[in-house]
């Protein structure tokens, strides 16, 4: 709460500042002419002989006055600031104080020093102490014998890798990455159906190692993950492999330095790594979704540490988000229940027909070669492979249509028992041509380094659509 | 180490301090480890506890810390964790 | 107490036994550790007790040790 301003003049100074020392002898004269309050930021000794001199030890007054430089001279009328100057400028000081002869012996001007309130680390502490921000999460006092990093492990907040201890200053910095209020509820987090606030997102983003500028992308990903269609609850509880994967499109990806090129699906890029990780930590810490508890995945997959990348949009293929209805030039995330990465090696196909057949043959094995319409899939086409299609004039949609044709199979080959394999689709499909994926179940993105005739399949949870999860795209706001 | 305050990243449905591990419903079939911190007289105390537990049909394993002035060596901790279900440590004074 | 905390992180529930002189120190250590281990306190002194007296202390502490080693009682 802002304290009321005292009428008259206010001087804010540091004993440590030569210019403040220069004007110190003038303060007695100013105090005689009218009400004067002096706030010293760093010492009880400055202007100690003046009764109205205060040691602003906590910097509360300096914070509320918005002091950037010392000395600062402020005139207050009726509790409201009307004018201020900083540093020593003879004319300004004479005008503000109304004392025409003030500081005659002093030079015309001397620059001031930086305010103590702006020293590194201090401004956020002050904001937490005196500002408007109200953090609501419980404070946990790490014992003095504990290493904060170990303490986070011991409290169960980690995914197995070290996390960044979420101090209030770190959380405050993270919250500045979004214009949303800390107490805004993003949604209900499964499996415990806990209301997850922007503040809790920020705390877990700190744990994950995010930068504040990643918050808008993370918030969009969380919103997408919490939609009914994405089916996050089921995805967390499944004994199958999947977990939320995030594909980022649009200018935001570049702005925050995401990787869509070499090793796009791998490690090494902070934005890719920490945004995906933050979402997983929110599931764990806020939602209560932990392996061995509600998460009973038989095998899981390494993407459950983090699975997040940007699409490479520097070619003549429509980016995924735009295919899914987002306007060009806007940023968006698409959430997909990804299970892992399976490579496609094709170093010989030079025409689109041959390469599409390679892709189709590999796509058949998603979930099981004899299963159909179970999981969705994302086909990640590398730039060298994409070039084969683009140079032949094939759009993503053209490729998709070709793949859908190639992925029709006679039901008789797929039914349970066919080929001496018990697994398979129900008997009733035996006389049909059966598509591998449900309509819209195959997504295509372009990503990867520019050298390498390799693409990849990311299979989706084998419960797609209304029985499980559907991909969800959400625009990135702030 | 200095104190640090962090903000709770969880749903805050559990108490802030680390909880103790859940105990088994009974000691039947369990192995109880007795760790002597090596202060004088502690061994007599633990000998008697061992006698009593054995009389109840509970399996007991004995361990000694090299010195009470330091935390137990890692190998000892690993060994105990592998060999017992529960641990009693004493006698500090 | 550090050892009990460590063994608990290895999934071994533990109970510490200490003399009543240790009560304050235990509370402080518990705060420093961020963990409050199950503790049984036996009457001070310890050092100059006879063997028979030590055995009597053990008999006296047994019930509480057993209680803290098993679930069923909220603590």
List the SSEs and their pairings.
The complex is a heterotrimer of chains A (478), B (93) and C (75).
Chain A lengths: L7 E6 L4 H6 L3 H7 L2 E5 L12 E3 L4 H5 L4 E2 L1 E6 L2 E7 L1 E2 H8 L11 E2 L2 E2 L7 H9 L8 E4 L5 H7 L13 H8 L9 E5 L4 E4 H11 L6 H11 L6 H6 L5 E7 L1 H5 L14 H16 L22 E3 L9 H4 L8 E7 L3 E4 L6 H12 L13 E5 L1 H9 L4 H11 L1 E3 H4 L18 E3 L6 E5 L7 E6 L12 E4 L3
Parallel strand pairs in A: 1-2, 2-3, 13-14, 17-20
Antiparallel strand pairs in A: 1-5, 4-9, 5-6, 7-8, 11-12, 13-15, 15-22, 16-21, 17-21, 18-19
Helix pairs in contact in A: 7-8, 8-12, 9-12, 14-16
Chain B lengths: L3 E4 L23 E6 L5 H14 L3 E6 L9 H10 L2 E7 L1
Chain C lengths: L1 H8 L4 E6 L3 H11 L4 E5 L8 H19 L6
Parallel strand pairs in C: 1-2
InterPro entries (chain C): UGSC-like_dom (IPR057767)
Protein name (chain C): UGSC-like domain-containing protein
Pfam families (chain C): UGSC (PF24696)
Task: Report what the structure shows.
The complex is a heterotrimer of chains A (478), B (93) and C (75). Chain A has 478 residues and is an alpha+beta fold. Chain A has three domains: 8-130, Glutaredoxin, CATH 3.40.30; 144-309, no CATH class; 340-459, 60s Ribosomal Protein L30, Chain: A (2-Layer Sandwich). Chain A is elongated, with a radius of gyration of 31 Å. Chain A has 17 helices and 22 strands. In chain A, the strands form seven sheets. A five-stranded mixed sheet of chain A has the order 3-2-1-5-6, covered by helices on one side. In chain A, strands 14-13-15-22 form a four-stranded mixed sheet. A four-stranded mixed sheet of chain A has the order 16-21-17-20. Chain B is α/β, with parallel strands linked by helices and 93 residues long. Chain B has a domain at 31-90. Chain B is 26% helix and 25% strand. In chain B, β2 (31-36), α1 (42-55) and β3 form a beta-alpha-beta unit. The longest helix of chain B is centred in the middle third of the chain and has 14 residues, at 42-55. Chain C has one domain (2-69). In chain C, 41% of the residues are buried. Chains in contact: A-B, A-C, B-C. Chain B binds chain C through residues 17-18, 20-27, 32-33, 35, 39-42, 44-49, 52, 65, 71-72, 77-78, 80-81, 84-93, and chain C through 1-4, 6-8, 10-19, 21-22, 34-38, 42, 44-47, 49, 51, 54-55, 57-59, 61-62, 65-66, 68-72, 75. β10 of chain A pairs antiparallel with β1 (4-7) of chain B, so a sheet runs across the interface.
């Amino acid at each position: 709460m802002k304290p009321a301003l005292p009428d008259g003049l206010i001087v804010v100074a540091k004993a440590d500042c030569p210019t403040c020392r220069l004007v110190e002898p003038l303060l007695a004269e100013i105090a005689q002419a009218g009400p004067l309050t002096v706030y010293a930021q760093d010492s009880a000794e400055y202007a100690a002989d003046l009764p109205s001199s205060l040691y602003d030890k906590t910097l509360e007054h300096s914070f509320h006055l918005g002091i950037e430089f010392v000395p600062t001279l402020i005139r207050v009328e009726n509790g409201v600031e009307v004018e201020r100057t900083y540093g020593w400028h003879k004319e300004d000081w004479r005008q503000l104080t109304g004392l025409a002869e003030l500081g005659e012996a002093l030079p015309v001007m001397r620059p001031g020093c930086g305010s103590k309130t702006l020293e590194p680390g201090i401004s956020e502490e002050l904001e937490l102490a005196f500002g408007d921000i109200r953090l609501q999460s419980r404070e946990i006092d790490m014992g003095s014998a504990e290493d904060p990093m170990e303490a986070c492990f011991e409290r169960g907040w980690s995914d197995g890798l070290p996390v960044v201890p979420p101090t209030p200053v770190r959380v405050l910095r993270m919250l500045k990455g979004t214009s949303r209020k800390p107490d805004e509820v993003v949604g209900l987090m499964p499996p415990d159906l806990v209301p997850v606030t922007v503040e809790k997102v920020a705390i877990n983003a700190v744990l994950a190692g995010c930068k504040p500028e990643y918050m808008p992308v993370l918030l969009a990903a969380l919103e997408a993950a919490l939609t009914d269609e994405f089916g996050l609850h089921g995805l967390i509880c499944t004994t199958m492999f999947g977990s939320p994967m995030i594909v980022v499109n649009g200018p935001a990806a570049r702005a925050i330095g995401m990787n869509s090129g070499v090793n796009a699906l791998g490690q090494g890029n902070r934005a890719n790594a920490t945004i995906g990780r933050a979402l997983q930590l929110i599931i764990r810490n806020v939602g209560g979704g932990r392996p061995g508890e509600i998460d009973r995945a038989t095998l899981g997959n390494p993407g459950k540490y983090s699975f997040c990348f940007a699409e490479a949009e520097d070619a003549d293929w429509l980016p995924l988000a735009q295919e899914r209805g987002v306007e060009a030039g806007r940023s968006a995330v698409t959430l997909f229940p990804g299970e892992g990465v399976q490579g496609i090696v094709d170093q010989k196909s030079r025409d689109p027909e041959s390469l599409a057949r390679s892709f189709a043959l590999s796509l058949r094995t998603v979930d099981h070669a004899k299963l159909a319409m179970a999981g969705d899939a994302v086909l990640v086409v590398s730039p060298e492979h994409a070039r084969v299609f683009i140079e032949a004039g094939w759009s993503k949609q053209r490729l998709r249509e070709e793949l859908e044709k190639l992925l029709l199979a006679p039901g008789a080959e797929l039914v349970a028992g066919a080929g001496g394999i018990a697994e398979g689709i129900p008997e009733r499909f035996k006389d049909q041509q059966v598509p591998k994926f449900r309509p819209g179940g195959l997504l295509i993105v372009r990503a990867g380094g520019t050298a390498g005739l390799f693409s990849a399949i990311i299979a989706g949870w084998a419960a797609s659509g209304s029985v499980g999860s559907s991909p969800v795209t959400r625009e990135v706001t702030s | 180490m200095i104190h640090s305050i962090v903000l709770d990243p969880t749903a805050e449905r559990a108490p802030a301090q680390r909880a103790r591990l859940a105990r088994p419903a009974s000691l039947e079939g369990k192995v109880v480890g007795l760790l002597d911190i090596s202060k004088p007289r502690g061994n007599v105390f633990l000998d008697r506890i061992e006698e009593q537990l054995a009389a109840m049909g509970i399996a007991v394993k004995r361990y000694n810390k090299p010195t009470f002035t330091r935390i137990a060596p890692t190998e000892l901790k690993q060994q105990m964790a592998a060999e017992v279900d529960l641990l009693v440590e004493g006698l500090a004074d | 107490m550090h050892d009990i905390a460590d063994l608990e992180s290895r999934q071994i529930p533990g109970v510490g036994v200490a003399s009543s002189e240790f009560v304050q120190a235990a509370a402080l250590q518990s705060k420093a550790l961020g963990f409050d281990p199950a503790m049984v306190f036996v009457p001070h002194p310890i050092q100059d007790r006879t063997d028979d007296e030590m055995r009597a202390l053990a008999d006296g502490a047994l019930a509480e040790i057993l209680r803290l080693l098993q679930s069923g009682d909220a603590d």
